[in-house]
Recover the amino acids of this structure.
């Protein structure tokens, strides 16, 4: 199906000359003079090569037919990341390079949106927030106020993030999966 280049967003899949590309970022640029353009940074699904394309906003591109469904993360092994469709119990295996930066955020049983093209996983969308335990951080210093600067912490998934000074080792916190930034203390 043909769509205007300016309507594409991150995660959309396009078909260029018979090859599928997933959009990593889409930016509409409106210069003071001239025609507005859309800058697309994309990754070729077959081999992971990244490309940048620029289209006039009036140009159209072929959007691939993709099946977006909720899947449940099961486990990771040598084959890749295993997901299950909760309605049909069908399982699919996603390659490590397809999951990419989302890998550390995946937890057993986590619901994700998986985009498949002809049964092959091509893109993943995580829930916006995820909860992890702080496994290592600097001790709290008496007299430090909550408005002071953040301190580094290592989470149970191995990622590093910055947390407020009152967060201690063993505290469960909620992070934004887009960039791993601290949001709040977990309410459980």
């Amino acid at each position: 199906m043909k769509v205007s280049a300016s309507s594409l967003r991150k995660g959309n899949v396009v078909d260029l000359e018979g090859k599928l590309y997933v959009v990593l970022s889409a930016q509409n640029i409106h210069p003071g003079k001239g025609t507005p353009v859309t800058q697309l940074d994309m990754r070729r699904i077959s081999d992971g090569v990244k490309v940048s394309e620029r289209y006039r906003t009036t140009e159209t591109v072929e959007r691939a037919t993709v099946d977006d469904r909720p899947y449940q993360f099961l486990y990771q092994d040598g084959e890749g990341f295993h997901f299950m469709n909760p309605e049909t119990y069908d399982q699919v295996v996603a390659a490590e390079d397809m999951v990419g930066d989302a890998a550390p955020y995946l937890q057993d049983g986590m619901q994700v949106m998986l985009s498949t093209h002809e049964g092959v996983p091509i893109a993943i969308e995580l829930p916006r927030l995820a909860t992890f335990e702080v496994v290592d951080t600097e001790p709290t210093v008496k007299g430090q106020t909550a408005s002071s600067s953040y301190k580094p912490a290592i989470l149970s998934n191995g990622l590093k993030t910055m947390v407020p000074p009152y967060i201690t080792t063993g505290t469960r916190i909620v992070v934004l999966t887009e960039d791993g930034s601290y949001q709040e203390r977990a309410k459980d």
Notes: The first strand starts at residue 2 and ends at 4. Helices lie at 96-99. The radius of gyration is 20 Å. The chain has a mean pLDDT of 87.
